[in-house]
Amino acid sequence: MHSPHNRRILLIDDMVSIHDDFRKILAPQAAQDRLDQLESRLFGTEPRMQVSGFELDCALQGAQGVAMAGAAAEAQRPYAVAFVDMRMPPGWDGVQTIERLWQTDSALQVVLCTAYSDYSWEEVLDRLDGHERLLVLKKPFDAIEVRQMANTLVDKWNLMRQAAWKMETLEAAVRSRTEELSQANLRLQAEMEERKQLESRMVQTEKLASIGQLAAGVAHEINNPLGFLSSNFGMLEEYLQSVFDILSVYESAEPGMAESAATLIRCTREQSKLAFLREDIPVLIAESREGMERVGKIVQSLKDFSRADTEQKWEWADLHRGIESTMNIIASDIRKSADLVREYGDLPLVECVPSQLNQVVMNLLVNAVHAAGPGRGRIVVRTGAADGEAWFEVEDAGCGIPADVLPRIFDPFFTTKAIGKGTGLGLSLSYGIVQRHQGRIEVRTALGEGSTFRVTLPVRQQLAAA
Predict the structure, then answer these.
(1) Looking at residue 420, what is its pLDDT?
(2) Could you give all domains of the chain from N- to C-terminal order, each with its CATH number?
(3) Model-level pTM?
């Protein structure tokens, strides 16, 4: 809050008579005021208009006046105006005194009192850089002139002080409002970033749901004819075995047949390459059955990966099964680029959303395949458990992650891959999935040596996540 109206005046003059004159002009005696009031009460006359007085302090030399101004400023009771004589031997003259006064209190309004001077007015202005705070009073001076100057400069000082206080208040309000706006802007940016991530996750989740439904549908459509094929293939094996048994009987009965019939059978046997067929047909059947079993595994992996029947429910799942299902889906990509090594530990069942963790595994494996580069790489998948947590990690022997890129790898849409090779959402979505599982995803990397991404999950979820 701004200070009360300041009417403090400092007079610096080496003549005591001047001090007395200024007291009469600027600080009327209290006794005279009391006599005026008594006269008004006795004779019923109108009281004389009270002239507002000033608080006047006097100094005989410039050094004394500067010390008084400094003490007043430190005491938070500064002078508003100073009347300074030009010549005050043997000490500082008026110009020197004013220079030091303004060094002590730059807001002080000054009146330079002079009858004659060792300086021209131009020299005074050149030395004193404060023309807006300086007036000149020529001696001999008039009392009215002194009082008018005092009133005007005191009002000016108070108005400037009020303006400065209002400016400080306004600046403080502006700073406060600016800080509020900055904080609001930061919150808005955070909310926009969060919304952007949520929208990207929703889009990706919808895509995954569509892919899951498609995979489940494809698996179902393949599984039905595969069941017919497998059943019929078993019957075909039995029929072929019966045919081979009949042919064996014919061969054993061949010596007792007529020569013409035996010759016909031998020629037919040689033309049909029966011996070769007996060796090759079982091999073809075994290979076909192996192919059907592989198709069956792929179908089961699609079903395990999509888990369309779970509707994203939390359940106790075998992480190894999910990892294997995911590796089966992208087995061809892995075989083209790297050797896959499994280093599995003992894992308990983990409470999770299996399809979401399968997506994390796929993202990490795809990144590891891409990190392998043009040469053949090596991918290691490890698992383990300790202290109520289960973990799995994917290690590649690629080029590693640069230090300036590492802080941004989990940012949405950030990618170092070529245009069209990646969306920049894989690790971001994986991070979000792991966070929703109350887990953590960590990376160890070294340039030229590769990277390892480890996902650690609690075996049992807290109630908030369930």
Answers:
(1) 47
(2) 8-141 (3.40.50.2300), 189-309 (no CATH), 310-466 (3.30.565.10)
(3) 0.42
